[in-house]
Design goal:
The chain is α+β, with helices and mostly antiparallel strands and 390 residues long. Helix content is 51%, strand content 14%. The strands form 3 sheets. Strands 1-4-5-8 form a 4-stranded mixed β-sheet. Strands 2-3-7-6 form a 4-stranded antiparallel β-sheet, with no helix packed on it. A hairpin with a 2-residue loop joins strand 9 and strand 10 (279-280). The longest helix is centred in the middle third of the chain and has 37 residues, at 237-273. InterPro entries: Acyl-CoA_DH_CS, Acyl-CoA_Oxase/DH_mid-dom, Acyl-CoA_Oxase/DH_mid-dom_sf, AcylCo_DH-like_C, AcylCo_DH/oxidase_C, AcylCoA_DH/ox_N, AcylCoA_DH/ox_N_sf, AcylCoA_DH/oxidase_NM_dom_sf.
């Protein structure tokens, strides 16, 4: 039997802990100082992109074979979590780079991988994911964007909505209908470039939170692309999209963890400083119980998220099938619900100050809300879980 000191089952490795420390230091020095301004001005967090790219943290998931860091799924989670702890908008740079490019990694040809993953790894381009449409949200298979074969090209027409980092990203994974008779089995995936003639963008959405990450419609007007930009075989796009979400929902859980941790850390410090009735409010049991509940929910969410990330990594490395669909949905659903509760309680702990923009908690509360909605609403996650009970 191994000694108890060597019992590593439920703790992160030394490498993962070192990564967390370095990302946290970088985030606090180079990203946190701009977070309030990015939110206030609803502008893209260029400082964060520059800092992440300089430190090779903008797309850590890209395999080494294509010039990437080759980080595992848990390392990717830790990067996103630590960036989100100071600025949720900035955490969407590494998160959406993974979401947009994972279909290429999972299903793309070797040529596509070389062409698009290299510039992503170098930081020359970002990648977005185009699945939702004005009339196809939770029912993604009801999409209307179409791709029609024309010789050795496809011509794409349609509108994609709620596209994160649209306009900033160079590359877009676009799901489009190639055979309308087959519903989900008639959907194919393509890489579209921002510079392709016929690609344009709507005005940035005016949002409740994550204001530094632009969300825009993507218009595809007679966009003619080479047929070899199809990701995988014709008709496999929807399956690739769903497989992608099994892995990337965990990155939304990571974002929720980071937002919640940032809120808890701030509230913990505040209640030691704020005095009422002659003593710090942190000495009152009512406040202590709130903090205890916040910390408990956060730790439960983290354990579930890290377990899901481990499953994602084992499957990506060619391991036997695991219940990733359930765990990915459960991690995203639980962590985002916890983040909403924790940030709301953190605002409460600051009282009137929590409600003002002079303190970061109202921003964190607004940012947390979207984690319950995107990459599948938490109502949809519950459907996914119920259909995939372990």
């Amino acid at each position: 039997m191994a000694g108890t000191a060597d019992f590593d089952l439920y703790r992160t490795s030394e490498e993962h802990d070192m990564l967390r420390d370095s990302v946290r230091s970088l985030a606090e020095a180079k990203i946190a100082p701009f977070a309030a301004e990015v939110d206030e001005q609803a502008r893209f967090p260029q400082e964060a992109r520059d800092a992440l790219t300089l430190n090779d943290l903008h797309a850590v998931h890209v395999p080494e074979a294509y010039g990437g860091a080759g980080a595992d799924a848990l390392a990717t989670v830790i990067v996103i979590e630590e960036v989100a702890r100071v600025c949720a908008s900035s955490s969407l740079i590494p998160a959406v780079n993974k979401l947009g490019s994972l279909p290429v990694i999972l299903s793309g040809s070797e040529e596509l991988k070389k062409k698009y993953l290299g510039p992503l790894a170098k930081g020359d381009a970002m990648f977005s994911y185009c699945l939702s449409e004005p009339d196809a949200g939770s029912d993604a298979a009801g999409m209307k964007t179409k791709a029609v074969r024309d010789g050795d090209h496809y011509v794409l027409d349609g509108v994609k909505r709620w596209i994160t980092n649209a306009g900033v990203s160079e590359y877009y994974t676009v799901m489009a209908v190639t055979d309308p008779e087959k519903r989900s089995k008639g959907i194919s995936a393509f890489v579209v470039e921002k510079s392709d003639p016929g690609v344009s963008f709507g005005a940035p959405e005016k949002k409740l939170g994550i204001k530094g990450s632009p969300t825009r419609e993507v218009y595809l007007d007679n966009v003619r692309i080479p047929a070899d930009r199809m990701i995988g075989a014709e008709g496999t796009g929807f399956a690739t999209a769903m497989k992608t979400l099994d892995h990337t929902r965990i990155t939304i859980a990571a974002q929720a963890l980071g937002i919640a941790q940032g809120a808890l850390d701030y509230a913990k410090g505040y209640v030691q400083e704020r005095k009422q009735f002659g003593k710090p409010i942190g000495d009152f049991q009512g406040v202590q119980f709130m903090l205890a509940d916040m910390a408990m929910k956060l730790e439960a969410a983290r354990q579930l998220t890290y377990a899901a990330a481990a499953k994602s990594e084992r499957i990506s490395a060619g391991g036997k099938p695991e219940d990733l669909t359930f765990f990915g949905a459960a991690a995203k659903c639980y962590a985002s619900d916890a983040a909403m509760e924790i940030t709301t309680d953190a605002v409460q702990l600051l009282g009137g100050y929590g409600y003002t923009r002079d303190y970061p908690l109202e921003r964190m509360m607004r940012d947390a809300k979207i984690t319950q909605i995107y990459e599948g609403t938490n109502q949809v996650q519950r459907i996914v879980m119920a259909r995939n009970l372990p």
